[in-house]
Amino acid sequence: MSQMNRRRALQLLAALGTTGLAAGCGSEDDDTPASDGSPIKIGLIAPKSGAGKAIGQDIVNGFQIYLTLNGQRLGGHPVTLVTADEGTTKQTGQAAVDELLKQGVLALTGVVNSDVMSGIRDTVEKARVPLVGSNASPTSLQSVVYIWRTSYVLDEPGRALGTYLKQTMPADQRIAIIAPDSPASLDVIQGFRHAFGADDPRILGEPVWTTAAADPRSNAYLDDIRQVLSRKPNALFCFYSGPAAVQFIKQLRTGLGWRGPVYAPGFLTEGTVLNDLHSTLVKDNDNLKPGTIHTASNYSADLSSNANRVFAGAYRKTFGASPTTYAMASYDAAQVLDKAIGLAGPNPTPQLVNLSMGKIGQVDSPRGTWQFNQPRTPQQKWYLRKVGFDGRLLSNVLISEIATLG
Description:
Elements: H1 6-24, E1 40-46, H2 53-69, E2 73-74, E3 77-85, H3 90-102, E4 107-110, H4 114-127, E5 131-133, E6 147-149, H5 156-168, E7 175-180, H6 183-196, E8 208-210, H7 222-229, E9 235-238, H8 242-255, E10 262-265, H9 273-276, H10 278-281, E11 293-297, H11 306-319, H12 325-343, H13 350-357, E12 371-372, E13 378-390, E14 393-405
């Protein structure tokens, strides 16, 4: 069993019991055959080092949870999950795809980096092997036949927050934008400005672009943060994730002492980020320091639904942490592959699976029910969250639903 110790998997199934297992396997009218089919291979592409390593591990974990809850089968076929290191560049991503295709995988999944996704597009389309991407989803990726995504298009979190703030921000308030100089940032900010109104006077000028800072102890963002704060904003909109998010918030809050509200896509506080920011955001008496952080995401671990209770419960039992949107999207990638492979018949081929992807209909997901739209991305709800306490644990706490996009 790849990446997950078999004993842990069996312990998980025993802890969940038959009720949890049945809930994780879907309803009785699923198209998945009851009998065993021939063994299949699924290729999972994720970074194993660098800034994207934690997201890559979440993606592996999410897919493995679905396999564990469903007897290590997809569409009635025993599955071998083969992983390949995405690396950090188009070249390393291409090498990972080539490696997996040589092993005769029925389908591909994963991919964290947007540049990698764009770089492997032509190879995937030419190979005619479906790729169910579970993270990277640049707006430039259009008119594809074999690439599906269970995350979201990168401009959508900006659109969700832009729509929300346009309606709720007072006329006399001002917001400034700061983000890394990257293609992903351009997608997010374009979505935000389009929804908020690019000429709205509440937006303070053009974005301030920051450079990458590899050392978490560095002060590389301070000059850029000073520049954006010199405009005297009432709030900030930003786009950071992982170690960069930790650096940015520490330098904003501790380095410069700014306590205004921050709005961002969910990446800013996802995964281990809040653990690393605990001393920055929390007082000694377990109260939050001033300065609210709001994020928009297609998932919140505290959503109340049977699908999320099964997924989040299994995830916490296995990994001792709350699931992220990355893990959830990978869990759903396994779920849609399960449905599509089942629909493809007893002898599935990559082309039959791809054809079946368009027939799976609604997906009962931990995020809420969604379905693929014409561009092969989810039509789904978006949620506003804030950093707060869930019991004594610093968490992303659900506030409300703010949009349906896709």
